Amino acid sequence: MTSNLEIVSAHYAASARGDLAGMLAPLAADTAWTEAAGFPCAGTYIGPEAVAENVFAALAKDWDGYAFDLERLLDAGERIVGVGTYRGTHRVTGKSFTARVVHLWYLEDGVVRTFEQVVDSVPVVEAAQTLPLR
After folding, report:
1. Is residue 95 a contact partner of residue 127, using CB atoms and an 8 Å limit?
2. Using one digit for the tens of pLDDT, what is the confidence trace for 79-88?
3. Which residue segments constitute the domains of the chain, with CATH numbers given?
4. pTM of this structure
5. Which residues contact 109 (CB under 8 A, 6 or more apart)?
6. Helix or strand or coil: residue 7?
């Protein structure tokens, strides 16, 4: 049986190679995927299709080279924590960013039930803005 750590690790490996189907494979039909308030894709999306459209497609549309660099995975059984850094360049402004991020995964019966992003969204928002934040 594949462990929860292996399932999440496979998601990140798929992300690194640009394999959307592989990234979505461990999500349950009713997975609740939450992007942090203040982040460009903020909100909670239910199911793989909603995640693909509202998160991954939206990021690909607005950012060049958008990526997550995984630093470490922490195994807490049903809960897996991914720690790393986002990076990318906004297609309109040409500004690049890096931002620290933590991903909180909850898995049950071999599928992702919930995902929550905790991110320093300020660098991302600043890179997307044509005017400086006040």
Report:
1. yes
2. 999 999 999 9
3. 4-128 (3.10.450.50)
4. 0.92
5. none
6. helix
